[in-house]
Amino acid sequence: MPELPEVEALAYHLREHAVGRTVTRVDVASLSVLKTFDPQWTALHGLEVTAAGRHGKHLDIGVGTELHLVVHLARAGWLRWSDTLSPVPPKQGRGPLALRVHLGGPGFDLTEAGTKKGLAVWIVRDPAEVSSIARLGPDALELDRAGLEQALAGRTTRLKNALTDQSIIAGIGNAYSDEILHLARLSPYANPAKLPAEALDRLAEAVHTVLTDATDRSVGQDAARLKGEKRSGLRVHGRTGLPCPVCGDSVREISFADKAFQYCATCQTGGKPLADRRMSKLLK
Question: Which residues pair with 99 in a beta bridge?
Fold first, then answer.
């Protein structure tokens, strides 16, 4: 899933390549991707791309003086830039293509792999009209130590869940939360409301370090290389069974119905493996 660093890099790429160009046509290959019906996508035709930014993990493309094309890439969505787009309209419901934006020769595709669809596109006059943006907590890159403490105050959910809850902190997903917790030497199951001051210090520093480093690595890369760049910078996420780069212990995994997370027991939980309910059920 694209998270804050990758979305920031995509916004940068669009600022460099799309801003100043005119939308000549929008092709909708999957009507289900559109979550708004007024304005219609044809309202973008003939307007200039004026800005590109983000709100948490939402990509915000300013078009003309009043409209925004807002995109949430979900788990398997992606933005693919092309210097030369095919002028032939795509067939609806065929392949991963969901929406194509022509910019007078070049342009970009919004695609989504797999059968579970979550890619979402809104055309709005104000990004705050998108309910998932209106609910966002403070941006993770803008949080200092005091802001992090305030965001976590009174939260009794697991720390891993708090970090990935976009209404608490915006921009962190499954992968970077694993990296942050590993760097901060904190258990994914820790209680956010009971973190001692020293642990909060480590967590605030880890949030800043992990996201800043990932953003610095990503910004300026071609959109096609961002996924590989993300994977290359991960130390524990997606590395189940491999040695922890800090202590050499095997990276462990906790699995759920639709996702998994990784951690190092030696670095994060005092050497004690976390309970994996999925495995416990299998062993009964």
Answer: 28, 110
Asked if residues 51 and 62 have their Cβ atoms less than 8 Å apart, the reply is yes
Provide the residue range defining the domain that includes 12: 4-134
Query: Given the structure tokens 């976590």, which residue do they identify?
Result: 152
The reply to whether 218 and 254 lie within a common domain is yes
**Lowest-confidence segment of 118-127, 146-155, 250-259 by average pLDDT:** 250-259
CB contact set of 153 (below 8 Å; sequence gap of 6+): 193
The tally of domains found in the chain comes to 2
Domain of 34: which CATH number? 3.20.190.10
Q: 3-state DSSP call for residue 252?
A: strand
Q: How many CB atoms lie within 10 A of CB 12?
A: 19
100 and 190 fall within a common domain: no
Percent of the chain with pLDDT over 70: 97
3-17 pLDDT tens trace: 999 999 999 999 999
pLDDT in tens, 14-43: 999 999 999 999 999 999 999 999 999 999
The answer for residues whose C-beta is within 8 angstroms of residue 202's C-beta and 6 or more apart is: 183, 184, 185, 186
Same domain as 144, residue 116: no
